[in-house]
Design brief:
Length: 275
């Protein structure tokens, strides 16, 4: 039975990681309604995100290889230091610093307090509304060529808010990008690239940390969920990048608000517990 639950959670992880709806919130909520009725845990979430982030690497493989190559070439003076791909490499590094620092500082809260369903419900609604406002008022004129170090830092702090389930890594960074005037596709592209160091770092750290620790799921079940998440995420990234070039984020905003509201009702009625 637990193997089937792991597969279902991997499917949900793959479906929701790159949509601005918070995959960690969905895994946390869904865990309450599975037969085991348990929180899958921050470690399970972080490890399965390795699968979804591997999908980003596959999808943006050419971009990533070019960025890494040009970053090293610029570092050793083989090409100009202002080369766009070399700059992107530095901007990904700079933007990754906030989530690394805050993740280490608030690790205990991330694994306990922040996983309260009350907090998740509030974050789903608040950041859903914020995404809607940003999508409505954002100028959507800037491309990735306009990205500065200051903007990269803002993106980085926005990404770090995703340490709280319910915020959404892609949703938080895209919201920040829209407020700064970036096009939807540009904001999403940088958000996906920016997540690579943080997600892989967090995932492998949790894998190492939980190797000998008992959890809701075994390492084998978690590995299967990670593979499922990878396969599903590949299709979701392709869909999402096409979607945002032609549509607004309104459906995701409405979904987040509705889910958060239902969660508050269930908590208020005592149908589910906050922890």
């Amino acid at each position: 039975m637990q193997l089937l639950e792991a597969i279902v959670l991997g499917l949900v992880q793959g479906l929701t990681e790159f949509l601005p709806v918070s995959s960690s919130a969905h895994l946390r909520i869904l865990g309450e309604f599975l037969p085991t009725a348990e929180d899958p845990g921050a470690a399970f979430t972080a490890i399965t995100q390795i699968g979804t982030e591997a999908a980003v690497v596959v999808f943006f493989w050419r971009d990533i290889v070019r960025i890494i190559r040009n970053w090293f070439l610029a570092l050793f003076g083989r090409i100009p230091r202002n080369d766009p791909d070399a700059r992107m490499g530095w901007l990904i590094i700079v933007g990754s610093i906030p989530i690394v620092v805050l993740g280490l500082l608030f690790q205990d809260q991330i694994e306990t307090t922040f996983r309260s369903l009350w907090i998740i419900a509030a974050m789903l609604i608040f950041f859903g509304v914020l995404l809607g406002i940003a999508d409505h008022v954002g100028a959507k004129r800037r491309s990735l060529n306009d990205l500065t170090v200051g903007h990269g830092v803002v993106y980085g702090f926005a990404q770090s808010l995703a340490l709280i389930p319910g915020v959404s890594r892609s949703g938080g960074t895209i919201t920040a990008g829209l407020f700064m005037g970036y096009e939807r596709a540009a904001a999403a592209r940088y958000a996906f690239l920016l997540a690579i160091p943080a997600v892989f770092g967090s995932g492998f750290y949790q894998l190492f940390k939980s190797w000998d620790e008992p959890g809701v799921f075994s390492l084998g079940e978690t590995a299967l969920a990670t593979v499922v998440a990878f396969v599903v995420a590949l299709a979701v990234i392709a869909f999402f990048m096409r979607w945002i070039s032609r549509h607004s984020f309104l459906p995701f905003v409405l979904y987040r608000v509705a889910l958060g509201t239902v969660l508050i009702v269930l908590l208020s009625l005592g149908v589910i517990d906050a922890y």
